[in-house]
Specification:
Elements: E1 5-7, E2 10-11, E3 14-15, E4 19-21, H1 30-44, E5 53-56, E6 59-62, H2 67-83
Antiparallel strand pairs: 1-4, 2-3, 5-6
Length: 101
C-alpha cells in the first residue's frame, strides 16, 4: 500500500501540483496480483463449484466444453461479481476456442 507517496498529474497543459496518495497500490507492485487472487477467491468461492475457471496474475479464465456453455458460465460469473460491487471490463473480455471444433 502507498505510504507517504506523492504524485502529480501530467497533461499536455503541464504538470499539476503534487498531492499525497492515501490509498491504493503503485502500478507494477508485486502485491497487486496476490491481492487480486485473494479477493477473487473469496468473491468466487460459491460459484467455483459449478464453474471451472483459472486465475493467472490479474486475469480470470472461464473454461467450458462448448461456446454456449462458456457464455452461460461467464454470465453467471459476471453477475456474481457485479452483485458484489465488482465491474467486469467487457472491452478486455476475449473468447478463445481450443480444440477441433
Amino acid at each position: 500500500m502507498n505510504t507517504c507517496a506523492n504524485t502529480a498529474v501530467r497533461t499536455v497543459y503541464g504538470k499539476s501540483n503534487s498531492f499525497e496518495v492515501k490509498d491504493g497500490m503503485h502500478q507494477g507492485s508485486a502485491l497487486r496480483s496476490l491481492l487480486f487472487v485473494i479477493v477473487m477467491e473469496a468473491l468466487s468461492r460459491e460459484i467455483r463449484v459449478a464453474l471451472p475457471w483459472e486465475l493467472y496474475a490479474d486475469d480470470a479464465f472461464v473454461i467450458a466444453e462448448t461456446k454456449d456453455d462458456q457464455i452461460k458460465r461467464f454470465n453467471e460469473w459476471k453477475d456474481n461479481m457485479e452483485n458484489r460491487g465488482m465491474r467486469v471490463n467487457m472491452n478486455k473480455t476475449k473468447v478463445m476456442i481450443s480444440g477441433e471444433k
